[in-house]
Amino acid sequence: MQILTPHVYWAQRHSEIFLRVDLSDAKDLDISVQENNTLQFKAQGHGAKGDNEYKFSLEFREPVRTEINHKSTQRQVDIKIRKQEERWWDRLTLQEKKPLFLAPDFDRWLDESDAEMELQAKEEEKINKISVESRVRKDPYLGLKRGYLFMYNLVQFLGFSWIFVNMTVRLFILGQDSFYDTFHTTADMMYFCQMMAVLEVINPLLGLVKTGFFPAMIQVAGRNVILFVIFGSLEEMQNKPVVFFVFYLWSTIEIFRYPFYMLACISTEWKLLTWLRYSLWIPLYPLGVLAEAVAVIQSLAIFDETRLFSVPLPALLGGSLSFSYTLQIYLVLMFLGLFINFRHLYKQRRRRFRSRKRKVQ
């Protein structure tokens, strides 16, 4: 049987060498590091020249440990070797000329500065983990706090799920006719959920969660203005289709947000749910603000006509100041709040997936 050399790809870190041998269905593996600091590899498998016996040897640039970790899969053989000293090598082999069968493994390749950053990130992660664990041990009320947050997120999830399912079923059964009675069928539950949501402003102040106080206040206050002031106080608004779109967008966002936080309370993560939590808001949040803005605009004429919440003016000026002027200012603040919250959510998403990417690497 012909003896051939497989393709070998390499990468390094300060303390380790990674080799990937392009040999599928490998068997009869014989891998060892000799006393002269040379790696010997021999195996049978399917490579570039079909089924054959493949072997190669590499004399490393500097001493390595004799212990070898390797794993054979249907596609390749992965080998990990630890260096004797944790330092960066300018090349892999003792000889300056690179063997023809050896090439960089660009899937794992890092230059020295990137490897140092990765090493620093790992050290920081260890320090943060130790710090968190030390704080956990010192907090006798941790279980109580987690239990409270778990129940809060569970109740909110069930409430918004009821709203979402109710509206979805009515939409399939009644079609567009369901737009006009959304408020009367779901308002009580929405009132309950939004009053409960005030706790999301209080929780950061008490140190129960790490979420910023200001973004939470913007969202909760904005929704409560729409629900209690625009929809709740104006009967003329309660039969408009915009109520359906506002409630549906709110509930769609929350049925993914609350279970994510609920599972986080018990240190559990579902990858699909995590992605939905940090991605769905990108289209849904601006659409929700747009629907809220439409509701405010539709209510302006009604407030002008009914003079509800109008502010009396001094006798010299006569009349009263319509509440619609306040709502026009609120419209401007609403889009400013959209920018602030969108920026906050984008930073959360980038931070979340950047840390996950580092863990994978």
UniProtKB/TrEMBL annotation:
One of its GO terms (molecular function) is very-long-chain (3R)-3-hydroxyacyl-CoA dehydratase activity. It catalyses: a very-long-chain (3R)-3-hydroxyacyl-CoA = a very-long-chain (2E)-enoyl-CoA + H2O; (3R)-hydroxyhexadecanoyl-CoA = (2E)-hexadecenoyl-CoA + H2O. The chain crosses the membrane at residues 147-169, 246-266, 278-303, 323-346. One of its GO terms (cellular component) is endoplasmic reticulum membrane. Keywords: Coiled coil, Endoplasmic reticulum, Fatty acid biosynthesis, Fatty acid metabolism, Lipid biosynthesis, Lipid metabolism, Lyase, Membrane, Transmembrane, Transmembrane helix. It is an enzyme of class 4 (lyase). This is Very-long-chain (3R)-3-hydroxyacyl-CoA dehydratase. The lineage of its organism: Eukaryota, Metazoa, Chordata, Craniata, Vertebrata.
